[in-house]
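Protocol step 6 of 9: fold each sequence in the batch and record its structure tokens directly after the sequence line. For illustration, a two-sequence batch is reproduced in full.

Sequence one:
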Amino acid sequence: MTDKFVTILKERRKALLSVAILLVLTVCAAIFAYNKMSNGPLNGFAVLEKNDPEYGKRDGSKDKSETNITYDSFANKNTSNKACKSLKKGVDVSVYQGNIDWNKAKKAGVQFAIIRVGYRGKTAAGTIGADKNFKKNIQGAIDANIPVGVYIFSQATTQPEAVDEANYVLEKIAGYKISLPVVIDYEYASGNTGRLYDAHLSKENATAVCDAFCNRVESVGYTGMVYANASMLKNQLNAESLAKKHRIWLANYVNKTSYSGTYDFWQCSSTGKASTYGMSSTYVDLDFWFDDGEKVRKDYSLVFDAEFYANKYKDLRDAFGHNYVALLQHFIDYGMSEGRQACIGFDPQFYRNKYYDLLSTYGLDWEKYYEHFINYGLNEGRQGSAQFSVKSYKNANVDLRNEFGNDYEKYYRHYMSSGQYEPSRTNTVTGYDNTVVGSVTMYKGVDYSKVFDFGYYKEHNATIKSKYPSNDVSALEYFVGTGMKNGDQACESFSVKSYKNANRDLRNAYGDDLKSYYNHYINVGYNENRITTGYDDKIANPITVYKKVDYKLVYDFNYYVQHNRDVLNAFGCDENKVLEHFVKYGMNEGRQAIETFNVKSYKNRYSDLRNAYGDDYKKYFNHYMEYGYKEGRVATGNENAVVGFITKYNGVDYSPVYDYNYYISNNPDVANTFKKDETKVLMHFINYGMSEGRQGCERFNVISYKNRYSDLRRAYGKDLKKYYMHYINYGKAEGRLTTGFETQVVNPLTTLDGVDYSPVYDYNYYIKNNPDVFNAFKYDDEATLRHFVNNGMNEGRKGNETFNVSEYKDQHPELYVKCGNSLKNYYMEYLKSFK
């Protein structure tokens, strides 16, 4: 008994194992067949609905091996026969496009997308089914800022069925921002099959079906559109009748359509390269939108929430329950005009009372308040209800500001869809209109925190402080769009000028493209610990080569700009322009550009170079670079002294009385006039300086020489140049003294016109006691004596220590008859006593 029971169990186990194996094989076969589809696998293990009329068009029946794939593109299409305000390129997608990277799609040029909501089955039952990727696709496109429309693949054969399809779509798109038309895709299933094909509708009935769908979606504010191929539009529909009321989406897979009817969209190909647009399928449909600039719909999703509307008003719940379409219809037909609140974010009565500009314009026309909020108010950041302020919500949630920027609608939709259910955001819906929490650093997916701090930027930038004092989003947007190009410093720890100046490899790569330096630091430099501050006015490893010549021996960028502020002010830290200035102008002007080389010193130091180059400073620079450095010539230390200066002119050597360095140091007028041209300076000394009595060297003073030697004074008088020449020709050889008598005269003159006045006159006594005389004649002993004889004696001035003319007059009254009151006569009477 036991053995039999065991045998039975074994047989059952075998049977169960066989069933299990069969199931596994079946599943694998389904997955394999699914993966053979042209448009790739769906998420998970979703089984394709063969009742889907689009199945067969997308099921991979075509051979899509690598050798047979042929792609089409927008570039192949000609739209010249269709005028519009703005031509846009887009795609239409469904579950058959698989996974989609919508950001990649946008970067690839997708400007709009029309997304399938669902379909009506192609069998007689005509059951409506959902596109399994609808939610994922529409949210992804919206998040990528791609305008969207939607379509349903219809198989409706009656007007009520068309309305059912419309209602189905309306429920599915509730809450989404649908900015393009809602479309009835009116075509036969693959291979001219399906319930629509089998119905053999007349042109009038088929047109009525499409019209019913469009009328329904348009009754709640959307724009209706009919999709059909050229043949369907020409032969099965009254296309122009539909075009007068709705929009037309033409399907015509040619490079230039010859369809002459009215249309707004053109599906030009079904074989676009899907991977180009971030899709895992092989192909994708390509579409043109001939945008006429008119709004395609009124978006009530901003002000209508069916659940809120039903929960707030009992009469509506009693009448419609929670039927989305019925509630929306009531809202459009009656609710707005009655001023009913239909969502938490907008209350028309609050809006009216809060904004007097609107109250004075619209009065009690409640629909106008809705329209204003939808079209203007939300984008202006106006508060729509007592329960919710979009400005507050934005300012209090830095994570959302990083994601949404200044797009108030995104904040609003975030709160409506999820924010109101997040406890952390409960206290952010009001109270922060004028207070910003945190600081935004994210812009278009890039984190700028390494180079941007709103507080710092505001305090150090007048534009930000005046225009965006409490708007970090706009401040960051300005920084990225304008500030980075201008080189604005937006945080304490990063100066783009320093970053550029400190990194020669980056200067070579980016030149003056300042924005690239910021991006490099964000992406690479930060992790490399590169220097970011401290180099605003200097450069690390500056260039020294200009037009294949290396000027490093005579040029250093940092020294040049630090010592030539006009250059720094003109060119900043543009190392190329600064070096160019030095080569073109600085060298000719004799500007010093490095600590170790001074061209004026180099010139002063070497007479052979002065003889060769004169005042051509650039040649001295070039000589040092080519020869002088190698010869070990001295390049500094003689800035103010010329070595080996010339002293000879016309065969005469003036060196006993002349030293160039002494002369220009003590005669700045000469130095300023002749710019230290040693030849011209010598010529000045010879032609003017000697005659003017200018001292030409430390060891010879012409006044002292004149004062010391009375024989020379008797011979040359006031002709000072002759004293110089006497010393050159004779005095030096005679060992005559040339200094030390600047303030005294040796053997001053006492005899004038044959009369010796020495008994009553001493030169040194006279000038010491008569400063007016000294000031007038200095050390001119002849002029001083003449003053005494012609003036001083008559005035009774004492000429020496021993004779006082007044006393002499008083002592000799007998001379009065002869001399009278003329004091000079008394002087002369006294002198007679010495004859």
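Sequence two, same batch, same settings:
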Amino acid sequence: MPVYNGSQKRARPLPPLTRKWTPNSFHKLTSSPSATIALFTRSFGIDVAVSVLSFAGETLLYTATKMTEKVCVVDRIESEMSALSLSKGATQIPAKKKAAQAPGQPVQLMTNVYKLALQKAPIYRFDVDIVLKMGDRSIKVVKKDAQDYLAVNHKDQAKATFLKVVEKHRDVFGKRQDLFYDLQSTLFSISKLPITEKSGREFILSTDDLPGVFGRVDAISFIVKPVTDKYQMTMDDLSFLNTSDVKSLKHDLAQFLEIASSQHALFDEDHVSFTTGISYVKSSGQPVNYEPSKLLCSGVQKSARFVEGLGSAEATLVLDSNKACFHKEGQTLYAKATQSIRNWPRDDRVNPRDVTSISKQFKGLYVETNLQRVRQYEISGIIAQNSKQITFDCQGQKVSVFEYFAKQYGKRLQHPDAPLAISKHKFKGKTETTHLPLELCMVLPNQRVKKDQETPQQTASVIKLCAIVPSRRKEDIRFQADKLGLWKPHTFPFSVEANPLVVQGRHLPPPSIQYGGQATVTVNPNTGKWQAIKGQNKNARLPFAIPGNCRIPGVDKWPWAVAYLVQDDRGMDKLAENFARAIDAECTARGMKSFPRPLIKSISPNELELGNPDNFFAKLSQNKIRFCLLIEDDHYSYHGLIKANEQKFKVITQDVKLSTVNDFKFNLGYQSGYGKGQTLENLCLKTNVKLGGLNHILKAPQGFDKIFAKNRMYVGLGISHGSPLTEFQKARGQKAVPSVIGICANHLGAHVQALAGDYFYQEAREDKMVSSLAKIFDTYAAMFKKVRPEINEVYVFRVGASEGQYSEILQNEVPLMRAGLKAAGVNAKLTLVVPSKTHHLRMYPAQIKAEDKAPFQNVKPGTVVDSRIVHPKFPEFFLTSHQTLQGTANTPRYNILVDDAAVPIHEHEMTAYAWSYGHQIVGLPTSLPAPAYIASSYAERGRVIAQQYDLMNPAFLDDNAHQDFDKMTQALSMGPFNRYRVNA
């Protein structure tokens, strides 16, 4: 059987094979050995890293891309640390430290955390492999796949195999209810199975045992192997939690609880499960508004969690309702297309814009055709040409797609003028394209709508449907828990309490807000809102704390421009001029120097192209124009390209939709806010920050002045990932959009609360932040010292990390941070806090009125919990800093990984809450502290800009044609623009 030998660390991966097959297609096995290996690779996701596969005398080398990338990342970490003479960091988490009298008013909160009563029962764990036998070949099957349809199909195969094996070998496996299988590679049992062989025990099934499951194979082998010779854990033994070393924590019991509580979802026909903790009820699907080809299904998101409890650690289940959009199965692509595009033409001649729309919606979708035999395809896109327009050579004759289906299959197409679907695949080193009539393609089941398949209408509709207020959410959670059988007697070797935990939290005091001229306003503690108004006139606002400036010294002509990109430019010059005057009036009234009349110009999409010699922004840069306000037609979406121009030509931009500008009533005058006073204020808040200003200054509550001390440097780190490549894109060798580290710091001279930053590129889909981390901290500490020579503390918010990454952060990232600070001559105390919103623990007031609107059903801004539902050993708190306007609050969790100052946890809580008022763009706190929030925005900006370039360009590659992230960062990052918060 293929085995990874661990010796080929830097083997260059071959392009992944993309020919799609189904388990029932083995009768189509080709005589080509490489094609047969390709079939197994795609059908079953062979678990092979670097292996020599022999078949019919042919030897093939296959290298798994993911393993190679992982090895390269590890090598890069080790190389960077070795170059700096650094050893791995300690993995000890600081001790919890709580003060007797922490700030804030007490408040009772309901959660979605359910306590478990664990039996004193032994648990045994086994590894599971499923191997297909074909002659002298053995192919290991892996039940994982990135594509939904394939992933569920693999699980269905594993389910059928497992149930048949248990049925045939009751003498070995005993009672079915004592077994807990994740349909992948892990089996738990609460009875000791008579399987002790180190190599495992093999159970053979024939294809007659599993008709139609695996196709034409000789036999199916189900191998069960103990994880160790004497592996056993006791369910109610939580002593493994008594450690402060994050690396030594065991996760076996949590894994068992999650798999055990998911058995009904995994084996029930009405449930579909993609990961152990997330499942959906298929029969709950409801058509999405305006798009009946997509169904919104309800489900549950679940995880096991060990908490502090009352006096001793407790095991719990966290249950949350969950919804997802699925593509409606069993309908043709033609029916789906007509439901996805409004006013589908009767003659099927669709306009190019709608073709582009459905191409985006259908890309990556799995379909099947059923003519002389069933075939399955992954859709690569939709083209405008119809079945009569596309021709190809068939047995020496040129025929159209329409003629081919009529002659080959006797199928006369009912919609010959409709667009065609295409499916691309590699075959014998060449790209082949199959053209498929929409009416013949049937959508396969269990496919969620991916982010890039969504339409704006669907997104808006789903957001509204998923925004469930707490009173309704509690009911949904109860319903889904019932569906999982969590309260049925004798279902599990543990019991789940019927009611969720109630905990005590605190309501923290907010900071006060100071504007220009020392004018201070107070924050409404119940909403987190404040207003910067003078007296009673809501359109007369207080001056900025620090005004920005669009002027370049020595340049008097046109320091700014207003451009418009619209389909119909009639009257646009006048509209743009009025809008420019409104912006100037608001900015001037709030303390900025008056803007002179701007350059006003109509531009075309072609003038935004980065390589165009007549590029509009290139001309602005040549004329030393610093700021451009761009009005964009609502039908266009050039935001990414606009921001790429901003980065390349160093012209600060702000784009606004034409509909927003049209809503202004300029005849009403400035005193009335042109009828859109709030919109005008929001635009100018952005403008002032982009141009180096600071809208307001935060004043911390009494006793917490050191939060904004001049010698405390703040750093935010965020991360953004691009969408994974399709199989066809991988096969073409297309480069993935790299992952992006966003950084934000208070290194500007204007004020210690002024924030700006940059971004850096690294390996795609990689969560580790090791790429040039020492250099980043060296650079930003040096810039901070130029404006404030002394740094006593460095406080880092590191976003985008899961609990499983804490060990890697402490071992690898923290030593690099310290090394960077040391290189800058900084010997400061380091604090590292990891905020996360990827969990699903929820909290809401203990008493809720169902008739109240969302803000009143949710917790108030500043609500914090640091007891009972937090980690038993590690310092942790949950803080809701924002007001929830719809649905239920997604409360961030904060974990303190480094705390050189060893301060009580409430000081970290106050720091995070105070900084949530520092975003500067609206009169509301954000869900994360400003350094973290803005760093994530920089990461997202870096990803958007990378998407505007051809990443296969040699300028971004090294000598071996691999992506060179240093080159990419040098070419595409902000550079000198890191002194301006251009992503405001």
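Proceed to step 7 once all outputs are recorded. Observation for sequence two: Residues 148-168 form the longest helix (21 residues).
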